[in-house]
Design brief:
The complex is a heterodimer of chains A (827) and B (220). Chain A is of the alpha+beta class and 827 residues long. Chain A has four domains: 1-63 and 232-375, no CATH class; 64-227, no CATH class; 433-504 and 677-827, no CATH class; 511-671, no CATH class. In chain A, 60% of the residues lie in helices and 14% in strands. Chain A contains 24 helices and 18 strands. In chain A, the strands form three sheets. In chain A, strands 9, 10, 11, 12, 13, 14, 15, 16, 17 and 18 form a ten-stranded mixed sheet that branches. Chain A has a six-stranded mixed sheet with strand order 6-3-2-7-1-8. In chain A, a hairpin with a 2-residue loop joins strand 10 (528-541) and strand 11. Chain A starts with a helix and ends in a 7-residue tail after the last helix. Chain B has a single domain (32-56, 74-218), classed as Rossmann fold (3-Layer(aba) Sandwich). Chain B has a six-stranded mixed sheet with strand order 6-7-8-3-9-10, sandwiched between helices. In chain B, helix 3 (100-111) packs parallel to helix 5 (141-153) and helix 5 (141-153) packs parallel to helix 6. Chain B starts with a strand and ends with a strand. The chains are: A alpha+beta (827), B alpha/beta (220). The A-B interface holds A 377-379, 451-452, 454-455, 458-459, 461-462, 723, 726-734, 736, 816, 819-820, 822-823, 825-827 and B 45, 49, 52, 54-55, 74-75, 78-83, 87, 89-91, 93, 95-98, 102, 105-107, 109-111, 135, 137-138, 163-164, 167-168.
Chain lengths: 827, 220
């Protein structure tokens, strides 16, 4: 046994010595592993972190409350009601003020409470050594989590100026477990500084069911007790986004794996004489296999360490935009301090090892089939490649059939991703056949005098076995780029049109507490053409948070509502018929409701049924939405709160000025209203930030494919150096060499790009028409995006040019030695 | 006319410098052929490499057809090989992806001196008419070497350098290839310098040069 181990160690060391002599190959193998694992782990770290943050959100102030006391009209809680309830013996109640502030148009959340009123279950806040006397006494303090303070460039004692001109109390850097990524203030200070006279809601600590009933009965009519279901909603709403990110990371990992496969293949190829010599010296093929597997183990450990380090760095870079998006879209508060657990490290190692073994399996099996010292001619390699191409194509076709079959019965996001993966890999496996056939076809079309082109094409054909894996990686990266760019482009263009339609008004007043009845009488204000007051309430319906909105069905923006589908009763809805409702298309796709169906919802007057007159587009919304006439909502949900007022101004040159004066006179504060362009700008900024990670992942995946191409070319050129030396001995000029090597490679890349076009369209169609519907419940028109496709073509050409330049430099550097060695293998 | 004057070349090895060529001088008249004989490691191939510009001499002059190569740069050497020389190796070194026809024409096309009539003549003389559409791996060793000879002569070089051209062939094929090579070189009007171990092969040529201790001796 000891002898066996000693022999095995010797064999392993002999095999590993290869990497010392081939630094470039070692580097590429490491790059493949590190980038693949890095991209995958970066997204996993982000997803883990976000999920952990959702769990933490459960610990946030107010989130642990079993119930909340809220005002039925959404106007907030009068402190007098709170004091009265406390006097009634409900000491488990505590006041919360939650509000969204804005600094340089960036949203910022503030939470405030009365530390002394917090029940024991919420007590960690304030008990961790914070200077709470300074918090509750003028000039007060604002507690900033350190990472948030860093984002805003705030130091201890600094004061932050809000967009509305108000100034927050001096900063103190404090991280309270129940604060999350929010500013924290004492509620008295917050009311004073923000000039509010109401709390947002009251949190309710531990209560027995009897006490809960007593509280419900004790509440005045304008207040209600509501269940806390925040945590469930957050996990549910964000699941699809995390699935998307995971799918992208797996794709990046697969592309990384292609580099590894190529590097391993070349490493084994170059070590073929060593393997044969070891077998001649008595090492069995089984022992060699074990040694190669041990080598894989060593590489996987190194790759995991490097990959996780790279992944962590990447996650640190990508997390802030993802956190902002989660906050903007879902109100999910995600911190930016990353933790890396042992489970993640072990999983990364496991997945790397599996990836490496997959990459090794085929070359190793082929090696094991070889007899010792069996000479392999070029024709043997071509024959083997022809056979491999056929097998790959057959496997690809099987995957395509499986994708087609699954597509017809696809009903979940996961199944959607499986179809997507199957389609992508089917295309990648069929690619070599497409490339070989296309090269042959082009070659046949060449006239007799075009001998250089013929040489170039035949040379490319012969090099296919070496570059096909890189081309497959490139195809995956290009397809993913085109598909996702088309999705994002279509989404952005649909959103822009939608915002134009939805935000038809000139001014939007956001202050819910402001009563602006004066503005609804158009005749009273010459600068006002039309107004639209909306109200709304959030309920749960069909297992999901649902917004019930009351509209003036004849307002300009209601008339222009972008509809996905409608029946003949749409006019009834416009006429304000209480029986009909418009729903967003999420209701259709996720809850399976059809036009004309009855939907039953809970109202203050008991369950009430409405019939669906139409579905409207509601891009990006995670909620169900039902639109009813304003009066109906007011009648059925007395607790519905005003949801702002839209104003259409006249063409008079000073209309906006007059409007602002009137608003100020009505008690609005500067900052309570926004113009159309600001909302659009903010919406599109949130959109772009949301997809920043997609763009980053796309760019990185393409870079990985570029590295795969470079690695393949460098290894290929190293392998073919003696060929080039012979060409040079025949008098081939460098420009001729470049033509023969570069032109076909450019052709191969172009053919791969050509294949990526329909595949990218297919991918985007799958993403838009299937996955998006299953994941988010909304559709949009697919718009093929030429600018990103052209940008991608230019980028690919640049990557190709760069790889060729590096190759040329390498060849020129090494050719003199190869020329000197010319004929040595003849002896 | 090939002229070598006071050519020196040494290699640095672990146990010191090895002088492979030590002031070697000789010449070969146009249309003449010479066999380069010597023990293994005596520097035969090195001398061939220096003449072809595949390696550089420490000092000395190499002149062919009145062109002094002393100041040659890399591109000049490539042009030199393409226009003035041709190389024939033991392992033929045909381009595996090109057909016999394209391999034959390759160097002449690179030099821009493709002559259709001479091509037809060579194809007929080399007995390759039926093999033109084949790829190199579909040919025997003797057939491959005939293609290599045709490729080396089609552009009518001033000098053909051959390094053990029959080393991979059996005795019968060697004799046939050798006879063809010398005949065709003569027809092309080129000079031939051939490295060989075999006195029998050397006997086909006009002169025999023995390389010993870095210098040449003209053998009988």
């Amino acid at each position: 046994m000891r002898r066996l181990l000693s022999v095995l160690t010797r064999v392993l060391l002999t095999l590993l010595s290869h990497y010392r002599r081939h630094i470039a190959q070692t580097l590429f193998l490491a790059i493949g592993l590190v980038t693949g694992v890095g991209l995958w782990s970066a997204v996993q770290i982000i997803n883990d972190h976000a999920r952990a943050s959702y769990s933490e959100a459960d610990q946030l102030l107010g989130a642990q409350a079993s119930h909340w006391v809220r005002a039925r009209d959404g106007a907030g809680i009068d402190p007098a009601d709170y004091i009265a309830l406390r006097r009634d013996g409900f000491t488990q109640l505590y006041p919360i003020l939650e509000t969204r502030l804005a600094v340089n148009d960036e949203p910022l959340w503030l939470i405030a409470t009365d530390l002394l009123a917090l029940p024991r279950s919420e007590s960690p806040l304030g008990a961790s050594g914070g200077d709470w006397p300074s918090l509750v006494q003028p000039p007060y303090q604002t507690w900033y989590p350190p990472d948030l303070a860093a984002d805003f460039g705030i130091g201890p004692g600094d004061t932050l100026m809000l967009d509305d001109g108000r100034q927050l109390p001096p900063a103190a850097l404090q991280q309270q477990p129940q604060q999350g990524r929010r500013l924290f203030m004492d509620i008295g200070a917050a009311l004073a500084v923000l000039q509010r006279d109401h709390f947002s809601y009251l949190g309710v600590g531990e209560l027995s069911s009897a006490e809960t009933d007593r509280l419900r009965r004790a509440l005045p009519n304008h207040l209600q007790l509501v269940d806390n279901r925040q945590r469930l909603d957050l996990t549910q709403l964000t699941a699809s986004l995390h699935s998307h990110l995971t799918a992208m990371s797996l794709l990046a990992f697969a592309v990384g794996l292609f580099i590894v496969f190529n590097a391993v293949r070349f490493a084994l190829h170059l070590r073929r004489p060593t393997l044969h010599t070891l077998r001649e010296l008595g090492a069995s093929s089984r022992m060699l296999s074990v040694a190669v597997l041990l080598e894989a183990l060593v590489w996987s450990a190194l790759g995991t360490l490097g990959g996780l380090a790279a992944g962590r760095a990447l996650a640190t870079l990508l997390l802030p935009p993802v956190a902002s998006s989660l906050q903007s879209l879902y109100g999910a508060v995600v911190g930016t301090d990353i933790q890396l657990g042992w489970a993640r490290i072990l999983l990364a190692w496991g997945i790397t090892l599996v990836g490496l073994l997959l990459a090794l399996a085929w070359p190793l099996w082929r090696e094991a089939q070889q007899n010792i010292r069996q000479a392999r001619s070029a024709s043997d390699d071509w024959a083997a490649d022809r056979q491999a191409r056929r097998w790959l194509a057959l496997f690809g076709l099987l995957l395509a059939v499986a994708a087609l079959m699954l597509h017809s019965r696809m009903s979940t996001v996961t199944q959607g991703f499986v179809v997507l993966g199957l389609s992508l890999f089917a295309a990648a496996f069929v690619l070599p056949v497409w490339l070989a056939s296309a090269l042959r076809l082009v070659e046949r079309c060449l006239p007799e005098p075009a001998w250089k082109l013929r040489w170039a094409l035949r040379d490319a054909w012969a090099q296919l076995p070496q570059v096909r894996v890189a081309m497959m990686a490139l195809l995956l990266a290009l397809t993913a780029n085109l598909g996702v760019e088309t999705l994002v482009g279509s989404f952005r263009s649909a959103l822009t049109i939608w915002l134009d339609q939805r935000l038809a008004a000139d001014l939007y007043i956001q202050d819910d507490s402001l009563r602006l009845a004066a503005f609804t009488d158009h005749g009273a204000a010459p600068w006002l053409v039309a107004s639209h007051q909306r109200n709304g309430v959030q309920i749960r319906w069909s297992g999901r948070p649902t917004l019930i909105r009351g509209l003036n069905t004849n307002a300009p923006d209601s008339r222009a509502l972008p509809l996905a589908d409608a029946n003949e009763h749409l006019q009834d809805w416009f006429d304000g018929d209480n029986d009909w409702v418009l729903a967003n298309e999420q209701v259709h796709h996720l809850a399976g409701v059809e036009l004309g169906d009855r939907v039953q919802v809970d109202t203050a007057q008991g369950p009430q049924a409405f019939r669906i007159a139409g579905f409207f587009h509601d891009y990006g919304s995670p909620y169900f939405q039902l639109y009813l006439p304003y009066a109906t909502v007011e009648r059925l949900w007395p607790n519905a709160s005003p949801e702002g007022l839209a104003l259409w101004l006249s063409d008079a040159p000073d209309a906006e000025q007059q409007a602002e004066s009137a608003l100020l006179a009505a008690g609005a504060q500067p900052g309570d209203w926004l113009n159309q362009n600001t909302i659009k700008r903010v919406s599109l900024r949130i959109f772009d930030r949301t997809f920043a990670i997609t763009t980053a992942m796309n760019g990185l995946t393409l870079s990985v494919a570029g590295i795969a191409l470079l690695a393949a070319l460098l290894a290929l050129h190293q392998q073919r150096l003696s060929h080039y030396a012979h060409w040079r001995a025949l008098g081939v000029r460098y420009r001729e060499w470049l033509l023969i090597v570069a032109l076909p490679l450019a052709l191969l890349v172009a053919l791969t790009g050509l294949a990526a076009l329909p595949l990218g369209a297919l991918l985007s169609s799958l993403l838009v028409h299937d996955l998006n519907v299953h994941a988010f419940g909304w559709t949009m028109p697919l718009q093929w995006q030429w600018p990103p496709a052209l940008r991608l073509a230019a980028l690919t050409a640049a990557v190709l040019g760069l790889t060729l330049l590096i190759s040329l430099w390498q060849v020129r550097r090494r050719l003199p030695l190869a020329l000197k060695q010319l004929g040595e293998d003849d002896a | 006319m090939l002229e070598l004057t006071d050519v020196h070349k040494h290699f640095q090895q672990a146990d010191g410098a090895v002088r492979v060529l030590d002031g070697l001088s000789t010449s070969l008249a146009p249309g003449r052929s010479a066999a380069l004989l010597g023990e293994s490691g005596s520097g035969k191939s090195t001398l061939l490499h220096l003449i072809a510009g595949l390696d550089s001499a420490d000092s000395g002059r190499i002149v062919l057809d009145g062109t002094d190569t002393s100041a040659f740069k890399d591109a000049d050497w490539a042009a030199w090989r393409r226009d003035k020389l041709s190389l024939i190796f033991q392992n033929y070194h045909l381009v595996p992806t090109l057909t016999v026809a394209d391999n034959l024409a390759l160097q002449a096309r690179l030099a821009g001196r493709f002559d259709g009539d001479f091509y037809d003549h060579l194809v007929a003389r080399l007995g390759l008419s039926d093999l033109l559409k084949r790829l190199p791996h579909q040919l025997s060793g003797g057939q491959q070497q005939r293609v290599a000879i045709g490729r080396a002569l089609l552009h009518r070089p001033a000098l053909v350098l051959a390094d053990e051209p029959t080393g991979n062939l059996d005795e019968r094929s060697s004799a046939a290839v050798m006879a063809l090579l010398t005949e065709l070189v003569r027809e092309a009007g080129a000079s031939l310098l051939m490295v060989t171990h075999s006195p029998a092969m050397a006997a086909h040529l006009d002169e025999r040069w023995q390389l010993t201790n870095g210098r040449l001796e003209t053998a009988a």
